[in-house]
Each structure stands twice: as structure tokens, then as C-alpha cells.
Amino acid sequence: MIDVRTALTSLADLIGEADAAVEDTARAIEAVLFVSGEPVPLDRLADAVQVAPHLAEAAVRHLAAACERRGLQVQAVAGGYQLVTHPAYADVVRRFLGAAAREPLSQAALEVLAIVAYRQPVTRAEVEAVRGVRCEHLLERLEERQLVRVVGRKPTVGRPLLYGTTDAFLRYFGLRSLADLPPRPDLVPVAARDGQTPPG
User: What is the mean pLDDT of residues 105-126?
Assistant: First the structure.
């Protein structure tokens, strides 16, 4: 006959051990994320702390919950996890670092970035066909800010450069992946809207 009290005690011990394992793993993951400075995929976290991926995932959730009342938070971004300062303290951190607020992206730059994000890989001419104006300078600025990059050449006449977004783009907008982009906007080329011949 099963001793119920003994069984419950054993079960409580097992739960306690599991909770302790998650707590210890969360501390180790916090240390890894602190020194990383960039998003770390779950499998790399699990490998770093030598635990199964499901335990690493539970530890990340535990760490995220523990950070809810602190100045840091765990952010799922760019296919991994990153320890970042809480947005509520951005001004405090900026003031401490003496850093001026970074110049925000212009409306034109955001338009070019959106076209690249939704149509990538895409050529400059294709971006310009959608916007109806030249955008070489804007693409250069977005490359300087590491939000877009050259990902290849289109196998057509002239082999024009193809542009795509970067991990920095995902971090900038707090996206885990491109699948998290909101529903695609209606990016109809200007030429098609106006019945004109698209630029070459």
C-alpha cells in the first residue's frame, strides 16, 4: 500500500529540485547575456550552461519574470535573447553616458527601410519604383546605421546590388524575426499606380 504522506513528500522534493535547477540555470544565463552584448539563440544558451533546451527556455522565462521589477529586462529579439536596459530608464542611462539622443530616422528613410524589409532582397531601382524618387543617398545612410546591407546581386543585366535588412534592424524595432513584421503594407510601385514606365 502506498504511503500518501511519503509520496507527497517525495513529490515536493522533486518539485523543489526542479525549481532550484531553473533558478540556478537562470542565474547562469543572466551572466551569459550580461557579457554577450548581442542576442543569443536558445540553443547557444543551453550549450553554454550545459542544460537541455527546455530547461534553458524555462530559465529564460524565470529570468524574464524576475527582471520585471528591475532596470534590466530580457528581450526576445533577432532570433535570440538579449539583456537590455528597461525603456523606462532610457533617459537616465543616456544622461549617465553623456550620449545625445540619436538622430531619429526621417520619414523618407523609414519608407525606404519598409520597402527593403517587405520586399527583400530588393534592388535600388525596385525601391525607387515604389517610392517614385531616387533613394541612393537614403540607402547609404541606412547602410551606415547598419539597418540594411548588400546581400548579393540580381542575376539580370548589369547585376544590380540586392539589399536586405540586418540583425540590427530587428533589434532597432524589437522584432524576433522578419516573421514578426506587421501585415505587409500596400507597396505598389508608383509607375503602376500612375500608369507610367518604371525607372530603369
Answer: 93
What is the grid cell recorded at 87? 525603456
In the block, cell 520585471 appears at 68
Averaged over 107-124, what is the pLDDT?
A: 93
- Cα–Cα dist 148/111, whole Å: 13
Q: Using alpha carbons only, what angle is made at residue 105 by residues 102 and 111, rounded to the nearest 5 degrees? A: 165
Each residue of 133-154: pLDDT tens digit? 899 999 999 999 999 999 999 9
Unique residue bearing C-alpha cell 524576433: 176
pLDDT band at 13 (very low <50, low <70, confident <90, very high): low
What's the pTM value of the predicted model, to 2 decimals?
A: 0.61
Q: Are 50 and 147 in contact (CB under 8 A)?
A: no
104: left (phi over 0), alpha (psi -120 to 50) or beta: beta
Alpha helices of 42-135 — where are they, by DSSP H? 42-49, 53-66, 90-97, 107-119, 124-131
CA dist 79 → 5, 12, 21, 45, 82 (Å): 45, 36, 25, 12, 10
Angle between helix 136-144 and 107-119 (nearest 10): 80
Write out the H or E segment, with its range, that includes residue 191.
helix 190-194
Residue 186's pLDDT band (boundaries 50, 70, 90)?
low
